[in-house]
Amino acid sequence: MEFKVLRGEDTPSIWRINEEGLPGTGKITQDALGNLLKLGEFSIGAFKGSELLGFVICLLPNKKYGSENYAWFNKKYKKFLYIDRIAVSKTYRNKNIGSILYEKVISYAHELNLPITAEVSLDPPNHGSMRFHYRNDFIEVGILHHEHQSVTMMLHNSKK
User: Are 54 and 17 in contact (CB under 8 A)?
Assistant: First the structure.
């Protein structure tokens, strides 16, 4: 397995894995996903040959991105690295890929001296993701209610 920066041509594979992770990953079109990838500050994938096994897409603050969750963090924090989405293909789950992707995000954020932000669905509940974030030293910093969903806003202090 190797880790590489995601490129535009990876969008169909990223989208397929994102769809496998619904509802936890959040519904998005392939075009919107391609645009998100362009906004990404740190976007990497785990690959086995040319096959994408999992990915993470992170943004810095103040990008032109319509996510209400991202906007919440922009209101609360001046500097951060926002994990917009992370997902692993169903075939490769429970093989430590998500944890390794998070280790790489944490290392990158540490280099930039930035905290990491993310959200986890409360309603509908995503218990696995919540356990994963707590296991990776994230803390709850708020709750955001949407029309049909609520999310826990999470923070990891990776600053030096």
Answer: yes
Given a cut of 60, whether residue 43 has pLDDT beyond it is: yes
Of the candidates 80, 149, 160, 146, which has an alpha carbon nearest to the alpha carbon of residue 118?
80
Distance between CA atoms of residues 115 and 97, nearest Å: 22
Q: What is the DSSP letter of 113?
A: T
* pLDDT at residue 160 in the model: 55
What one-letter code names the amino acid at 90?
K
Q: Which of 36-40, 125-129, 152-156 has the lowest average pLDDT?
A: 125-129
The answer to whether residue 160 is domain-embedded is: no
Residue type, 52: L
Residue range(s) defining the domain that contains residue 22: 2-117
Is 131 part of a structural domain of the chain?
no
pLDDT for 157? 83
Query: What residues have CB less than 8 Å from 35, skipping those under 6 apart?
Result: none
Here the tokens at position 70 are 């991202």
Name the nearest CA neighbour of 81 among 138, 12, 35. Answer: 138
